[in-house]
Amino acid sequence: MNKFVKTEKTRNSGAAAWQVIYTDLMTIIMVFFVILWSLNQGKDIGVSETIGDVTDRMLNLPGDVLFAPGKSQISPEGKEVFKELFYDETGQVLNFQTGGLTKRMLIIHGHTDGDGKKENNFNLGFQRAYAAYEELKNYSDDISDHAVICTHADNTAVQEVPDFEGKISEAQRQTLRAAKSKNRRITIEDKIINKFDLE
After folding, report:
1. d(Cα 147, Cα 134) in Å, to the nearest integer?
2. 84 φ/ψ angles, rounded to the nearest 5 degrees
3. Distance (Å, rounded) from C-alpha 173 to C-alpha 179?
4. Which of 78, 147, 161, 189 lies most in the core, judged by the most C-beta atoms within 10 Å?
5. DSSP single-letter state for residue 74
């Protein structure tokens, strides 16, 4: 009788250990699939979420320095800014050689403030981005194969423009001017793209 009880206890403890191991294994597998699922949320297979994979650096250039108000021709001061940033005797600043597995792209964004008609601002944003692209061509022969031009009519503002009502004070006027000035800009985004995503 004692022998039978001992054997039954041994059998039950072995079964309990197996169930614990099985439960742990299933929990690990479930966690693994939850992680995989969460990584794929919001991704549409076959459609790129952005123009590239990694933004290496982003450069904001104030439009008030580069352009006269309402104009798309780069000012002499603006040309000096481009020269200071992109002139390089070694040819490394705008070197697009990446070794074949990735591709380097410059996305040039032309931003305006919200004054005037939206259509006119889209056009001005594009013309300014194109002028920046033309200026960059002075510092790289390869840029035409590595540039994308975007235009924004105040819909990606770096600073929210306050919506003052009624007669505004001089301090409020200065705040408005500063906010609008920050939104008038050229942004040059340096992206590294995984070439496998392009196929």
Report:
1. 11
2. -65, -35
3. 10
4. 78
5. B
Buried b (16+ CB within 10 A) or exposed e, 144-153: eebbebbbbb
Strand (E) positions, 40-155? 54-62, 102-111, 147-152
pLDDT score recorded for residue 74:
94
The backbone torsions φ and ψ at residue 74, rounded to the nearest 5 degrees and listed phi first, read: -70, 135
Q: Are strands 147-152 and 102-111 parallel, antiparallel or unpaired?
A: parallel
149: nearest Cα among 131, 164, 162: 131
Rounded Cα distance between 186 and 129, Å, is 7
Order of strands, sheet of 102-111, starting from the edge strand that comes earlier in the sequence: 54-62, 185-194, 102-111, 147-152
In the chain, the largest separation of any two C-alpha atoms, in whole Å, equals: 104
CB atoms within 10 A of CB 124: 23
CB 119 within 8 A of CB 93: no
pLDDT tens track for 99-151 = 777 888 899 999 998 888 989 999 999 999 999 999 999 998 888 889 999 99
Could you read off the pLDDT of 38-68 as tens digits, one per residue? 554 444 444 334 444 566 788 889 888 899 8
Among the listed residues 150, 115, 157, the one whose alpha carbon sits nearest the alpha carbon of residue 129: 150
Residues β-bridged to residue 61: 186
